[in-house]
Amino acid sequence: MGRFIPLLALASSALAWIGEVKEENGVKYQCKCYSDNACWPTVTDWTSLNTTVAGALKRATPPGAVCHRSLSTAGVSNASTYNAAACADAQANWLNEKWLTDDPIASLWPLYTNNTCLPTSDPNSPCTQGFYGVYVIMATTKAHIKAGVDFARTHNLRLIIRNTGHDFLGRSTGKHLTELRGYGSLIINTHSFKDVTFTTKYTGIGNWTGGAATVGIGMQGRELFKHCFDQSPPVVIVGGECPTVGWGGGYIQGGGHGPLSSIYGMGADNILSFDAITVNGEYVTANAVENPDLFWALKGGGPSTFAVVTSLTVKTFPEVPTAGTIVNINSTHTNDTAVFNKGFTIFHNLANHYTDHGMFVYFELSTGRLHIAPFVGPRMNTTQVEAVLKPLFDQLDAAKIPYDKYTRGFPTFFQFYIDMFEDEQPNQNSIVGGRLFSQTDIKERGDAVAEALLFASAPTADVGGFSVGHILNPGYGVPVADNAINPKWRNASSFVITNVIMNGDESWELKKERENIQTNVVGAALRKAGPDGATYVNEGDLNEPNWQTSYWGSNYPKLLELRKKWDPEGVLYTQTTPGTEDWSVIDYGTKLCKAVS
Ligand SMILES: Cc1cc2nc3c(=O)[nH]c(=O)nc-3n(C[C@H](O)[C@H](O)[C@H](O)COP(=O)(O)OP(=O)(O)OC[C@H]3O[C@@H](n4cnc5c(N)ncnc54)[C@H](O)[C@@H]3O)c2cc1C
Ligand SMILES: *[C@@H]1O[C@H](CO)[C@@H](O)[C@H](O)[C@H]1NC(C)=O
Ligand SMILES: *[C@@H]1O[C@H](CO)[C@@H](O)[C@H](O)[C@H]1NC(C)=O
Ligand SMILES: *[C@@H]1O[C@H](CO)[C@@H](O)[C@H](O)[C@H]1NC(C)=O
Ligand SMILES: *[C@@H]1O[C@H](CO)[C@@H](O)[C@H](O)[C@H]1NC(C)=O
Ligand SMILES: *[C@@H]1O[C@H](CO)[C@@H](O)[C@H](O)[C@H]1NC(C)=O
Ligand SMILES: *[C@@H]1O[C@H](CO)[C@@H](O)[C@H](O)[C@H]1NC(C)=O
Ligand SMILES: *[C@@H]1O[C@H](CO)[C@@H](O)[C@H](O)[C@H]1NC(C)=O
Ligand SMILES: *[C@@H]1O[C@H](CO)[C@@H](O)[C@H](O)[C@H]1NC(C)=O
């Protein structure tokens, strides 16, 4: 099979362009190589890559493929996949976060796989690649990651770094809901990088002399918290609330909020050094002295944007006694919508009050259901938490809003975390959006913010929604770190993820309509209610208007320059990250291409 190498060579590129040249609506594009293109690597090329990675290259097989007779992919030979025992296992574990994150390629948010190849009870039903990539390197060494980056660069393949598959926005399957971004890609799985070492006194670059940990890129939230707790004395690291979300991958590179952010800042604020592989396949360290610009950008500048991180060194802090409260208002208490809405508004209008006391609050909101689980009071005992929350319960009582609550205190944050946080359920279908409301938004327009959030639970007569909120102010009493995170986070009060509920089997047109509801109905209401706010790239809308400013504020121009420096050709790609403006998905959403005219 001949390789298709157009004569056109980019002036800025050392390599001749290998790939399809396409034209759509008068714009000329150069596309990544896909499995239905002549430029797709030959079997010999893949075999050679497999040799380089010591056999760690696998066909990327959707987790439900074991329930189907065979997997078919354009341009690649079909694989027979059925295995009754493995199928029963897949069916039993379809809502198990750990099982899914341990899978080589599974995405926990099936809309971003096109809901392809589900664990059916009909083995004859078709299983296609959907939005998943075609090959995956199950990397166990840095050299495997480098080999994957080099192969994707030289063969012009869409490259996906897959840590846990947790990304709400499908960025680890590498496609967009209705645009098949990443269809035909090479995936590098970093899940096995779980090494961690602790020191009680950091002696590396910079002025930090407290404790530190060096953490492998595959480490997940709860396992990292557990390692911290097992130290003597126990320590804490700022991480997210979800037990299985990766810690050092998308989380840190997007900024990273968590239950201790109100006292210790954002996840990315606390990084001391990164080890990474550049898009040119070079091993680099990035810290305050070595590659300080890359150091700055990796701290919140966007996942899969500047380099592939392999490990991180982060500040540890002393454990803290922690107390908190769980509150419910739902149909057990009232079916009166006006009463419920008033209760939510009272709760949410006190957001600045909670953060002024260093609290973090996690809540879930849908029509008639508010589940606050939990209020987190670091460095507090139950008496202190009850004192901070007294105005809330006084106001609810005065307004005759029924609710239930309980408060518990623990000697450490870790014990609190294990007891008071709940696991989320994966494999739900929704289109994500959201907004960060500032202290000013809450103070000056709290009722309007609450109203917009209540509206997001039922934006139209036939569309349902639910929201996940995080009340925190990572600027409160914490020295401001110099990094790429949107400066708006320093005045944050409430960051809420909104979801438009989907079935997953909607037509292309209906998916587009529902995306429009998230962006232009729900999103418009949120922006109107919170004009001083911002959005969060890890938990935001892929169609966010003015995403550059919305996600990064005044840091965007510098991030754009750094993207041009560290990945000028677009070896990495994640939608709505710095420097991706020229890239689009054309040809009915199947090809990731860069406009060249
Ligand atoms: C249930 C749930 C709870 C969450 N809770 C929180 C929370 O409390 N706080 C918070 O801030 N966020 C939270 N998030 C959002 C989370 O930060 C993002 O989904 C994040 O992208 C997950 O990163 P990951 O590495 O686990 O996921 P993946 O899906 O594997 O990767 C996500 C993105 O990061 C890129 N990436 C992964 N590893 C690397 C690497 N080594 N180098 C370069 N790029 C890499 C991927 O290519 C992809 O673009 C939550 C998400 C979910 C689904
Ligand atoms: C890579 O090599 C290993 C070990 O020989 C083999 O099991 C695997 O199937 C190969 N991968 C591909 C995609 O052929
Ligand atoms: C692969 O599977 C598809 C779908 O089942 C089928 O149409 C196609 O003929 C198969 N290709 C080969 C080479 O068997
Ligand atoms: C996605 O799903 C739709 C509906 O089942 C189907 O028509 C389309 O071909 C799928 N796309 C891919 C890339 O599998
Ligand atoms: C250490 O602190 C000094 C004084 O605040 C500052 O000027 C210097 O930049 C810091 N060094 C590093 C590497 O952060
Ligand atoms: C409503 O709150 C009660 C606690 O009072 C809880 O047991 C129940 O699960 C909640 N219902 C819903 C739908 O969340
Ligand atoms: C609300 O309605 C549900 C369903 O009809 C009912 O079970 C519940 O008891 C009602 N709650 C209250 C507080 O009346
Ligand atoms: C909490 O701490 C305060 C201040 O030290 C103390 O007065 C109070 O008794 C403590 N409450 C509990 C339940 O330990
Ligand atoms: C945060 O608020 C303070 C005062 O409340 C203000 O001075 C500062 O400019 C704000 N910062 C941002 C990034 O909005």
TrEMBL record:
<keyword id="KW-0274">FAD</keyword>
<dbReference type="Pfam" id="PF01565">
    <property type="entry name" value="FAD_binding_4"/>
</dbReference>
<dbReference type="InterPro" id="IPR006094">
    <property type="entry name" value="Oxid_FAD_bind_N"/>
</dbReference>
<feature type="signal peptide">
    <location>
        <begin position="1"/>
        <end position="16"/>
    </location>
</feature>
<dbReference type="InterPro" id="IPR050416">
    <property type="entry name" value="FAD-linked_Oxidoreductase"/>
</dbReference>
<dbReference type="InterPro" id="IPR016166">
    <property type="entry name" value="FAD-bd_PCMH"/>
</dbReference>
<dbReference type="GO" id="GO:0071949">
    <property type="term" value="F:FAD binding"/>
</dbReference>
<dbReference type="InterPro" id="IPR016169">
    <property type="entry name" value="FAD-bd_PCMH_sub2"/>
</dbReference>
<dbReference type="GO" id="GO:0016491">
    <property type="term" value="F:oxidoreductase activity"/>
</dbReference>
<protein>
    <submittedName>
        <fullName>FAD/FMN-containing isoamyl alcohol oxidase-like protein MreA</fullName>
    </submittedName>
</protein>
<keyword id="KW-0732">Signal</keyword>
<dbReference type="Pfam" id="PF08031">
    <property type="entry name" value="BBE"/>
</dbReference>
<comment type="similarity">
    <text>Belongs to the oxygen-dependent FAD-linked oxidoreductase family.</text>
</comment>
<keyword id="KW-0560">Oxidoreductase</keyword>
<dbReference type="InterPro" id="IPR012951">
    <property type="entry name" value="BBE"/>
</dbReference>
<keyword id="KW-0285">Flavoprotein</keyword>
<dbReference type="InterPro" id="IPR036318">
    <property type="entry name" value="FAD-bd_PCMH-like_sf"/>
</dbReference>
<feature type="domain" description="FAD-binding PCMH-type">
    <location>
        <begin position="128"/>
        <end position="319"/>
    </location>
</feature>
